[in-house]
Amino acid sequence: MSALYTELQWLLRAPADFPQRLKAITDAEAPPGAELQALALHALDLNQLTKLAKAMAKLTAAGKTFAPLVPLRLAVLSNSTFDMIAPAVTASALRHGMALELVLPPYDQVAQQALAPDSKVNACKPDAVLFALDYRALPLKLAPGDAAAAEASVQAVMGYLQTLRNGIKTHCNAVCIFQTFAAPVETLFGSFDRVLPGTMRRMLDDINRELTAFALANGDVVLDVAGIAETVGLSDWHNPQQWNLGKFSFAHDFVPLYADHVARIVAAIRGKSRRVLILDLDNTTWGGVIGDDGLEGINIAQGDPTGEAHLAVQRLALQLRQRGILLAVSSKNTDEIARAPFKEHPEMLLKLDHIAVFQANWNDKATNIRAIAEELSLGLDAMVFLDDNPVERGLVRKLIPQVAVPELPEDAADYARTLSAAGYFEAISFAAEDAKRAEFYQDNARRASLKQQSGGVDAYLASLDMTITFQPFDATGRARIVQLINKSNQYNLTTRRYTDSEAAAAESDPTVFTLQVRLTDIFGDNGMISVVICRPQGPEVWEIDTWLMSCRVLGRRVENMVLCAILEHARAAGVRRLAGVYVPTERNKLVIDHYSKLGFDKTGEEEGGLTRWTLSVDSADPDRAPMKIISLGFN
Amino acid sequence: MEEAQVYARLTPIIRDVMDDDSIEVTPQLSAKDVDGWDSLTHIRLLMTIEKAFKIKFSTSEIGKLQSVGDLVSLIGLRA
After folding, report:
1. Interface contact B47-A19, CB threshold 8 A
2. A609 Rama class: left (phi>0) / alpha (psi -120 to 50) / beta
3. How many domains in chain A?
4. Which residues of A touch B (CB under 8 A)?
């Protein structure tokens, strides 16, 4: 059984204090809608979903309303046991911004409920009716090889469904949602069951096809249970023990998934499907970091497993665009550098023309996504954000929770599938304008202007529980130190390259101050992310020969903490002044203001853009960041 | 697994599924003693137990369960 589907792995894991949080919402005075949705936006198991639904019932009974969630009354007609599924559906609907009122008539009264004008279902005037029918209660007669009898059986089923539909339409005119049928696992011939008229498999294939055509023609809605069962595996979907025990149409393990699918459909009925896919670039759209690895170094090579994984993401994005989903980019990169692969890399599937809004800058992604939404005149709740970096995902979820941010697995090979599994773009119709929609935005990847900064970034950073570790160069770190020194191009003040022996020489020279910096946070260990080398430049002066940092930790004020560490050691060594130099290259425009931002004064500028800077050690007092500091290996 | 260990792990599970932290889990406890322990909740409980203890009950075993004591013996054998 794939955990992606049984555990809804695109959602965050449920908080350990789920029962307490639920109780707090139920007991609070405040309107519960938004809080319930936030809690539902986790992967919940059947027990948790049941509790959540119970809490909603309690709140409803107490007269509470659920604004801003959108209400919908859904009646379910089922010929199998739906009671255990019902609370899961109500709870899952919260995740999609819906406050569902679910009406479940007594067991196995499908026809009576549909046809009697005063039935519970018709009388309650539902907005939608879900026909949750199992193939076992259909008027289907096995007739292997008898095409005429098979056709008669299929038409009998269609007639039955049509009758049910007419009943509902006549008496309460609700939207009708039909499920396709998951065929039984057991075959009589093997492959031939698919081919020969009159086998269950063949008849159900025919019924599913006729049903979908019928629904399309009538403007009814289809919940493709056959497709869901196929996706997770028919033999896992059907559980004979559970059917025998209590007429459960499919395995309990899939109740959360099924419930989420029902929720997506009702949300789509209310127009709540998302419309924009915002892509991060580095290690999401391609393997590697464009700013450091360059056009030659990023990986989207066909035939390379990592390259293929990222191409699959691009391919899915392009296909989504073809069905009317807009594409945008939000990347922490220099704009020019970020655009280069789209313009020049021969293996890129995505081109600039495909991107409606292209936000590449060094600002936080929440601010950028807000700008994208405004530029497209769409709500934040229309956005989906795909990013391999859990820190970025956390920031966006925290600051703009209306944006859908799927959790991604370790392996990029599963990115495309995970995004698809999440079902953010579920739709129940497709019109000509949908196909053309992306073209309306085809004017060369606009940049949206940033208006206000997102508040709350600092608080989010403080919640990351960061620990920064400072050590001088040592033999253990040398390989990584040398790698960073030679690989870093963007956050690199002087781009001085060192060989392994040159690094060793710096390490053992008592007049040279060296730093290897590591950072851990709540998501794990980022490893070594910064390297500094300071050399004596006359009495009481250190020249900062090398200062580089991994762009992955930008925006967290790591450079401030590094400066504090340099100053501390400078003071201890009797140094009174730090001298910095910025050597401009094609790739490091990012750090043109690095020294200025850290409080250095400019002492000179040369032709070509090289700048020199100075900082008095005694009077320097840089801003710190909320991090724990560990200092090792200094004597 | 030792019975004491089974009880230790089973008690929070029963309380969580029944949504009642006050339940005293004894060998004699059965569905009739707890409000809301109907056939569907029973099935949800067994499902939760199977997942938590990484075991599977057979149809006939499920049919024979009369009390928590029976359940604990069965888990003890399997886990």
Report:
1. no
2. left
3. 3
4. 19, 46-47, 50-51, 54, 81, 83-84, 241-242, 244-246, 248, 252
